[in-house]
Amino acid sequence: MFTRSGFGTIGLSMFGLGTLTRVARELRQDLTAAQERDPAAREIGRAEILLTYGGVQALLMHRVAHAIHDIGIPLLPHALANPSRVVTGIEIHPAAEIGDALFIDHGAGVVIGETAEIGDNVTLYQGVTLGGTGFARGKRHPTVEDEVVIGSGAKLLGPITVGRRSKVGANSVVIHDVPPNSTVVGNPGHPVRVEGKKPAGPDADWAHLPDPVADAIRALAGRVAELEKLLAEATGKKPEATAEVRPLRNVRGSDPASG
């Protein structure tokens, strides 16, 4: 029967060349993701990205801590995760499952909980929370599938699933499953099917998100105008002018995500 310290010694011996090779491969993919998805990183070297990008540094520390967690060594995974959080401002639980080529842009305030699962080629912006609900053990954090983009300040709470190639708008609060190829905006978040051509390159177009609240108000305003017209025809009384419903964001102009 092994003691806890004895099990830790065996675990350290299992942390060998294969694990180091896997972590190195994952680091290369994370660096490539930063170069491809951050315009500011395209003109600098990979060594500079590793030394100066908190998101890449936090991911590297997590991948090491996660590998140690998987082989059952106590204390050390959290001992690595905590200073990483202090230095980078990004908190990732050692047990969280993270796929290949995650890019955390800026990163300050990002929190990824214990049972969170993140697929491949996912992009997170600053202030994103993949948080849990309740105090029971088991799955209580979100699952984010491949090629999802989550905007600044978005909160995904509970054991929900965000389908692949979906997009979560900045400051959205998502508490229900999101279908694949959807956009979510608002609090609570509302899935809205994206219409039109997908922009070329990494999709970071936060200026042209659908606005279901504005659409509903516009529809109501149109209905009121129609009823006022019918009332005016019936009574001969001209209705007063109503204010125009205008979107809060600029919906014209070129797509900033297209380069």
Tally of extended strands?
15
Tally of DSSP helical segments = 6
Using only C-alpha atoms, the radius of gyration works out to 23 Å
What is the CATH architecture descriptor of the domain at 1-95? Answer: Orthogonal Bundle
**Lateral arrangement of strands in the main beta sheet:** 3-6-9-12-14-15
Note the overall shape. Answer: elongated
Provide the CATH topology of the domain at 1-95. serine acetyltransferase, domain 1
What average pLDDT do the residues reach?
Answer: 83
Can you summarize this structure?
With 259 residues, the protein is an alpha/beta fold. The protein is built from 6 helices and 15 strands.
Q: Notable features of this structure?
A:
36% helix, 5-stranded parallel β-sheet, alpha/beta, disordered C terminus, 6-stranded mixed β-sheet, disordered N terminus, 259 residues
Explain how this protein is built:
The protein has 259 residues and is an alpha/beta fold. Among the domains are: 95 residues, Orthogonal Bundle (serine acetyltransferase, domain 1); 47 residues, no CATH class. Helices cover 36% and strands 14% of the residues. It contains 6 helices and 15 strands. The strands form 3 sheets. Strands 3-6-9-12-14-15 form a 6-stranded mixed sheet. It has a 5-stranded parallel sheet with strand order 1-4-7-10-13. Helix 2 runs antiparallel to helix 4 and helix 4 packs antiparallel against helix 5. The longest helix has 24 residues. It is elongated, with a radius of gyration of 23 Å. The N terminus and C terminus are likely disordered.
